[in-house]
Amino acid sequence: MRLCRYDDDRLGLVEGGEVLDVSAAIEAIPASRWPAPPGDALIAHLDAVRAEAGALAGSAKATPLAEVTLKSPVANPTKVIGAPVNYAKHIAESQADPQIAPGQKILGIEDYGPFLKASSSLVGPGEGIALRFTDRRNDHEGELGVVIGRTGVDIPLEAAGDYIAGYALALDMTVRGNEDRSVRKSLDSYSVLGPWLVTKDEVADPNALDLKLWVDDELRQDSNTSFLIYNVEKLISWCSSFYTLHPGDVIMTGTPEGVGPVKAGNTITLEIEQVGRMEVVVRNA
Ligand code: MN
User: Rounded to two decimals, what is the model's pTM?
Assistant: First the structure.
């Protein structure tokens, strides 16, 4: 199932080129009072929402995808986790290009540990990217996003797959420079997730997906998640050794080679097989 959040927080079921309005399925989420339990309530109750959405689909109003504004399919993650240098060829380009990591020795992912992006940086493809610090290099990083389905800590590798709710396309936008990653990758709109959540049953193997990214008509990134150094299950287990994972938490799995700068007026197109394709317009803040 492909579930999207669109326009004024409508819930959509995506079929073909259309969005079916299944917003009434949100009623399957139990009401909560302060303090709300940590995590995204829709993802925490995804099975109930899916059942309701499926029941509503037959009589739902359909709108062409091109006519809606797509928001992040996860509204309230407790955190967006990033995986640094998780493709060997991206490490090589970071070592070769002094603008990517100025003055820094490039270590391995096991040395850095995961990093956090502010959840306030999260937008959907329809909202676009608003660049700041435009005198510096602002790069695209196209990545597979994994959405966590339930709470877990110290998750064993062999159980990691049970904690996946689904997948989405992710852009880990980055200002290049010397500040900590959590600063440079956490600006408003610097985390794009979309165009929808694909539930995990639709993806046979997340570690074998073609990933392509274009800036306007130029193909910049062309790889496959089989080249991940820490694959999806390893990332879940590893991240949960540092942080308790909650429903709706997002792991951006790392970017392959081909990162590069974007400017206002560019359109970034990201495509991952079995997950989807999204176009994101870049502007100045
Ligand atoms: Mn990244």
Answer: 0.97
Q: How close is the Cα of 161 to the center of ligand 1, in Å?
A: 22
Q: How far is the CA of 109 from the centre of ligand 1 (A)?
A: 11
What's the gap in Å between 115 CA and the centre of ligand 1? 10
Q: 205, 9 in Cβ contact below 8 A?
A: no
- Confidence band (pLDDT; 50, 70, 90) for 106? confident
Q: Which domains does the chain have, with CATH numbers?
A: 2-71 (2.30.30.370), 80-284 (3.90.850.10)
Q: How far is the CA of 260 from the centre of ligand 1 (A)?
A: 12
What pLDDT digit, counting tens, does each position of 26-69 carry?
999 999 999 999 999 999 999 999 999 999 999 999 999 999 99
Residues 193-208 have pLDDT tens digits of: 999 999 999 999 999 9
